[in-house]
Write a structure and sequence with these properties.
Blueprint (H helix, E strand, L loop, with lengths): L1 H15 L19 H19 L14 H16 L13 E6 L2 E6 H26 L6 H5 L11
Antiparallel strand pairs: 1-2
Helix pairs in contact: 1-2, 1-3, 1-4, 2-3, 2-4
Length: about 160
């Protein structure tokens, strides 16, 4: 699942940029939202929570690597390793596989295609974007290129 792997790498790079300012990982957009660290951890958690059922496998137990910069980096690396262990053949028939899961307090049953496109990917991107937004608000010099790894803008350019 190249999209997940790409954005996990971007999250890892984003977390690395907090070196020397790790307190920003505990910041929140508003008091009742997750901290930047929890947003990163939740985004990373969605990857195997989505990929494994699509591959017909059980979701591995979450390992607590800590919520500091180093721990988040380890969490992302472990998720990327778990993702790399899945082969393209593991996803044969995934579009039509029925996935039963929870979304908050809702019990859902979706085709694999809907599970990925309507639940998994949007939730991953939501938490990744929230982490980015918190860190940007806290003064990290980051922009769109840091989020997607594709754009290129002159230093200081912002939308």
């Amino acid at each position: 699942m190249p999209v997940f792997d790409h954005y996990l790498l971007q999250l890892a790079r984003l977390v690395d940029q907090t070196a020397g300012r790790e307190q920003v990982l505990q910041a929140r957009l508003v008091p009742d939202m997750f901290s930047a660290a929890q947003q990163v951890a939740t985004a990373a958690g969605f990857v195997l929570r989505v990929a494994c059922p699509l591959a017909g496998r059980a979701v591995p137990a979450d390992v607590d690597h800590g919520m500091d910069r180093i721990g988040l980096g380890r969490r992302i690396a472990a998720v990327r390793q778990g993702l790399a262990a899945l082969s393209p053949a593991d996803f044969d028939g995934a579009e039509t596989r029925i996935i039963r899961h929870r979304a908050g307090f809702a019990e859902l049953e979706q085709s694999g295609a809907d599970f990925l496109h309507l639940f998994g990917m949007p939730n991953f991107m939501f938490h990744a974007a929230m982490a980015f937004a918190v860190l940007r608000r806290e003064g990290l010099e980051i922009g769109k290129a840091d989020f997607d790894g594709l754009h290129d803008y002159p230093h200081g350019f912002r939308f």
